[in-house]
Amino acid sequence: MSRALVKSTGGKNNVAGIIPAACSALIPGLGQLVNGDTDKAIGVFVVAAVAASSFIGAIPLVGSVAGLVWGATWLYGVADGFLEGRKRH
Fold first, then answer.
1. Cα separation of 65 and 21, whole Å?
2. In terms of DSSP H, where are the helices of the chain?
3. Pick from 43, 46, 47, 63: nearest CA to 55
4. What's the rounded Cα separation, in Å, for the pair 69 and 52?
5. How confident is the model over 14-47, as pLDDT tens digits?
6. What are the angstrom distances between the C-alpha of 5 and each of 2, 10, 12, 15, 56?
7. pTM of the model as a whole
8. Once rounded to an integer, what is the mean pLDDT over residues 1-20?
């Protein structure tokens, strides 16, 4: 059987970014910390914390924007944790 259609991973582990992504899904920035990006971890955590606190105590219009910022930051943290984890391993 020909292996022309089978994608070669070059010896890379296909689940290398799962742990940092799961960590970032629990606490934004934790995946970056697991990957060794301390400055990025602090930045993601601070943005998520400020957006979350604004969402909780804000007026309705500002609260929705803060919720969107938090959601975007969470999504960025999970995606970045996964992709950087794949690059490093």
1. 24
2. 18-26, 30-35, 38-57, 60-88
3. 63
4. 9
5. 677 899 999 999 999 999 999 999 999 999 999 9
6. 7, 15, 18, 21, 51
7. 0.74
8. 61
Each domain of the chain, given as residue ranges in start order, spans: 38-88
- Alpha-carbon distance of 15 to 47, in angstroms, equals 28
What are 25's two structure tokens? 């899904």
- pLDDT for position 55: 77
List all residues 6 or more positions away from 71 whose beta carbon is below 8 Å from its beta carbon: none
Angle, CA of 27, 51 and 54, to the nearest 5°? 130
* Centroid of chain to Cα 54: 21
